[in-house]
Every structure is written in structure tokens, then in C-alpha cells.
């Protein structure tokens, strides 16, 4: 099966060793202090995402982002899958820059819960238009680039090209229950589900946990049913971005422009 056929079928690819050790080291050096500074700035020890990096004043070298994405093996990977796409966020509009850094919370585990981006994250979305746009696979593609070993992402292979099953839909509906751990102050219940239960449910639904190493790239459709599970015990620094296209940009303009 070609890489493109694999991506089209499963909705994700783990590509090993796209970035060299030196490139990862450079990224780590530039990003090393961001978790500390942003947790302090936002007074939130459990911050799990710094985004967009382009707007973080403590981020010393925003131009590096563009250089980083010029890595020959990344270009090769993307050009074997797409034509007419661009990464990181093109200079179309600052408002749609999503270059981010995913980090571990310090005090408690956290998860995104099972979801499809846009459909489950944007209130009152035109779901028919989103689904129709999803048929164009130049839209709704994202990247995780771990700088430390990263086992946080779970995906349900193939779910990007079909509707939810009844059980998937039930788990998506319970998303908010899995965002916080049991020991969060003011939790409404002392029997909230744990991350272990979430993992068990994901396995029942056929989800796979992606185990990536520094310098690997996980490319996935953001319309895929997916879930990030973050452990406070495990250091996470994963660059997170999209693969963009004219078609994607038209969609966001139509959907979000006032
Ligand atoms: O933490 C992750 O790897 C998943 C992030 C995620 O779900 C998203 O950005 O849509």
C-alpha cells in the first residue's frame, strides 16, 4: 500500500526519524523555558498547550518555526501525500496560526476526551459544511512532532471517513467527564471516571495508542476520532501544527469570519 493509500484509509501516519537529533535538540533549546514561563504567566500549573507560539513574547526566535518546517524529510513526506499544501501556518491571517507546544500538566492528569476537531469543539458549527469539506483531504490535517517520547495520542483508525458508531458517539458525548481527574477541587462528583477507564473504553472502540519518538511526525486528519491523554508523570514537549491549504483557508474564513 502506498503511503497515500495508507493515509487515506486510516487517517493517520506515524513517520519515524523525520527530524534529526540536531534539529530536535535545537527545538528543545528554543522551547525549553516556555512551559515554566507560560505556566507562571497564566498562573496555571496545569497548562497543557501553548498556542500559537508565534504570539508568545518569551519565544525568542519565531522565524525558527518557518526554518524548522523546511526540513527536507518533512517536505518529502508531505509532497508524497499532498499537492498545494503549506506548513506551518501560512501568513494568511494571524488569527489562524495554530503552531503550538503540547506539554504535561504538573498536578493532575488531563485529557482532551474523544473528539473530532471543529465538530466537537466549535459551538453551533455547520456540521454538514464541515463534513462536506472533510471530503477534500487537503483540509483538516494536523501534525504532532514530539521532542520527548510521546504516547499521549489515541486515534480510531478510519473514523475520519465515516460517521460515529453509537458507542463512539456516547463516548464523545461524555467528553467533559474525562477532562478532569478525580482529585480536582470542587469536582461535582467523587466518582468521576479515571484516565484508566478512558483508555479501556478507547480500546473497546478499536482505538490505537500512537507511540512516537523524538523527531518522528504523526500526521493525522483532525476529523479522525482522536484523544490526547496527558500524564502528569511524563514530560511532554510536542510541537503541534497543521498542514494548510487554500481549501482549508476558505473553509475557516467562511466559518469564522465575522
Ligand atoms: O494532545 C494531543 O496529542 C491531541 C491534541 C488534539 O486532540 C487536538 O489538537 O485536536
Could you give a short description of this structure?
The protein has 258 residues and is an alpha+beta fold. The chain has helices spanning 3-10, 21-31, 34-41, 62-68, 72-79, 127-134, 166-173, 195-204, 246-256; strands at 12-15, 49-50, 85-86, 100-103, 110-111, 141-146, 153-155, 208-209, 217-221, 226-230, 237-245.
Overall description:
- About 30% of the residues lie in helices and about 15% in strands.
- With about 260 residues, it is an alpha+beta fold.
- Strands 1, 2, 3, 4, 6, 9 and 11 form a 7-stranded antiparallel sheet that branches. The chain has a 4-stranded antiparallel sheet with strand order 5-10-7-8, with helices on one face.
- The model is unreliable at about 180-185 (pLDDT under 50).
- It has one domain (about 5-255): q2cbj1_9rhob like domain (Jelly Rolls, Sandwich).
CATH fourth-tier homologous superfamily? q2cbj1_9rhob like domain
**What letter string, H or E per element, gives the SSE order?**
HEHHEHHEEEHEEHHEEEEH
CATH topology: Jelly Rolls
Percentage of residues in DSSP E strands: 15-25%
Low-confidence stretches: 181-187
- N- and C-termini, Cα separation: 43 Å
Give the CATH class: Mainly Beta
SSE topology sketch:
Elements: H1 3-10, E1 12-15, H2 21-31, H3 34-41, E2 49-50, H4 62-68, H5 72-79, E3 85-86, E4 100-103, E5 110-111, H6 127-134, E6 141-146, E7 153-155, H7 166-173, H8 195-204, E8 208-209, E9 217-221, E10 226-230, E11 237-245, H9 246-256
Antiparallel strand pairs: 1-9, 2-4, 3-11, 4-11, 5-10, 6-9, 6-11, 7-8, 7-10
The structure holds 2-oxoglutaric acid.
Amino acid at each position: 500500500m502506498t503511503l497515500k493509500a495508507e493515509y487515506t484509509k486510516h487517517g493517520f501516519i506515524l513517520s519515524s526519524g523525520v527530524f534529526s537529533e540536531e534539529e530536535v535538540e535545537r527545538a528543545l533549546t528554543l522551547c525549553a523555558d516556555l512551559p515554566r514561563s507560560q505556566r507562571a504567566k497564566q498562573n496555571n500549573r496545569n497548562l497543557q498547550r501553548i498556542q500559537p507560539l508565534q504570539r508568545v513574547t518569551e519565544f525568542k526566535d519565531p522565524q525558527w518555526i518557518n526554518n524548522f518546517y523546511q526540513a527536507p524529510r518533512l517536505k518529502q513526506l508531505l509532497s508524497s501525500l499532498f499537492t498545494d499544501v503549506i506548513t506551518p501556518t501560512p501568513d494568511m491571517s494571524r488569527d489562524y496560526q495554530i503552531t503550538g507546544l503540547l506539554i504535561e500538566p504538573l498536578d493532575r492528569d488531563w485529557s482532551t476526551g474523544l473528539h473530532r476537531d471543529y465538530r466537537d469543539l466549535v459551538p453551533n458549527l455547520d456540521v454538514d459544511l464541515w463534513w462536506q469539506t472533510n471530503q477534500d483531504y487537503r483540509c483538516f490535517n494536523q501534525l504532532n512532532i514530539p521532542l520527548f517520547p510521546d504516547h499521549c495520542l489515541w486515534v480510531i483508525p478510519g473514523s475520519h471517513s465515516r460517521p460515529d458508531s453509537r458507542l463512539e458517539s456516547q463516548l464523545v458525548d461524555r467528553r467533559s467527564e474525562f477532562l478532569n481527574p478525580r482529585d480536582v477541587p470542587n469536582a461535582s462528583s467523587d466518582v468521576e471516571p479515571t484516565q484508566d477507564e478512558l483508555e479501556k473504553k478507547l480500546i473497546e472502540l478499536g482505538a490505537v495508542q500512537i507511540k512516537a519518538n523524538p523527531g518522528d511526525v504523526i500526521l493525522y486528519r483532525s476529523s479522525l476520532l482522536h484523544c490526547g491523554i496527558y500524564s502528569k508523570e511524563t514530560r511532554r514537549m510536542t510541537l503541534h501544527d497543521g498542514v494548510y491549504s487554500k481549501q482549508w483557508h476558505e473553509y475557516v474564513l467562511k466559518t469564522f469570519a465575522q
